[in-house]
Amino acid sequence: MVAEAFASATIHFFEPKEFSLMEFSFKKSCKYKIVKYFLLQKTVSKLIHLFLKINGVIEPTGSSKVFFHPFSYRKFHPGAKIKILSGDLLFGYPFPDVSYFPSYTKSVIAMGENSQLVINGDVNIVNGCIIKLAKNAILSIGDGTSISQNNVILCGAEIEIGKNCLFSWNIQIMDLDGHKISRKGEIPVKKSKKIKICDNVWICSNATICKGVTIGEGSVVGANSVVTCDIPPFSVAVGNPAKVVRENIAWEK
Questions:
Q1: Model confidence over 32-58: pLDDT tens digits?
Q2: Quick one: DSSP state of residue 154?
Q3: pTM score of the predicted model
Q4: Cβ burial 164-178 (10 Å sphere, 16+ → b, else e)
Q5: Distance in angstroms (rounded) separating the CA atoms of residues 194 and 175
Q6: What is the pLDDT of residue 10?
Q7: What is the percent of the chain with per-residue pLDDT over 70, rounded to a whole number?
Q8: 18 to each of 13, 32, 100, how far by Cα in Å?
Q9: What are the phi and psi torsion angles at 240 (to 5°)?
């Protein structure tokens, strides 16, 4: 799967056209070096998977695997687990069509003590994302979900993401307050409330999903929206705070 993604990412560079023998040799050499580089990345990714599996961080089911980009940053505290119920997790690799985001930014995953990342199917988290789980937190992601570049997911307690969801770039999802907040005279408390994103949800660029909300199945969250309350199924919500502007909608990837 990773090799196919690499192939599709580079094939536009080698479209057939008329050129001299010298140009042919140069392009053939470049293609060889690129393919060799990608195969090296794949080998390193397999070694990372094996190392984390031996150390008990990754708990795969059957032939399921986690493909970490070699340049991604990974930090796992004692007891942290990545549970792969089915499928594969692709983490930190760029889009197949790299022309959208030509520069590479490494992805980050940091998991606190006894936290769990639960993957149920094929999931793609591309480069530039930051995934952080607090102590005892649970983040679950369903089959066919794709998380685009520069997304930030901060999980303090529990975040549930369904199947076939599509996240655009620069999205923030946080089920907790960044800092402790209270009225004057009260003891400051940092509170977390579960976020649930149901199946087939499309979240557009620069959106923010706040704690305690549920986004219903088949819904769309517009660009630059701030979701502070529940969104019903099959709706379009936009604005700050996000409000439903259309109902009974359907969308396709």
A1: 444 555 566 677 777 887 878 878 889
A2: E
A3: 0.80
A4: bbbbbbbbbbbbbbe
A5: 6
A6: 39
A7: 78
A8: 14, 20, 27
A9: -135, 105
The token pair at 197 is: 């994103």
The domains of the chain are located at: 57-197
* Residues annotated as part of the active site: 179
Q: How distant, in Å, are the alpha carbons of 21, 46, 167, 183, 195 from that of 145?
A: 44, 22, 8, 39, 16
* 35 burial type by CB count under 10 A (0-12 exposed, 13-18 middle, 19+ buried): middle
More confident residue, 193 or 27: 193
Question: Residue 235, Cβ neighbours under 10 Å: how many?
Answer: 21
Strand partners, 138: 116, 158
Whose tokens are 């639960």? That residue is: 118
pLDDT digits (tens, 9 = 90+) for 177-197: 877 777 777 776 668 899 999
Amino acid at 37: Y
Report CA-CA distances (Å) from 80 to 53, 58, 83, 114.
12, 9, 10, 5
Strands 226-227 and 208-209: parallel
Rg (CA), the chain: 20
Return the pLDDT at 238. 97
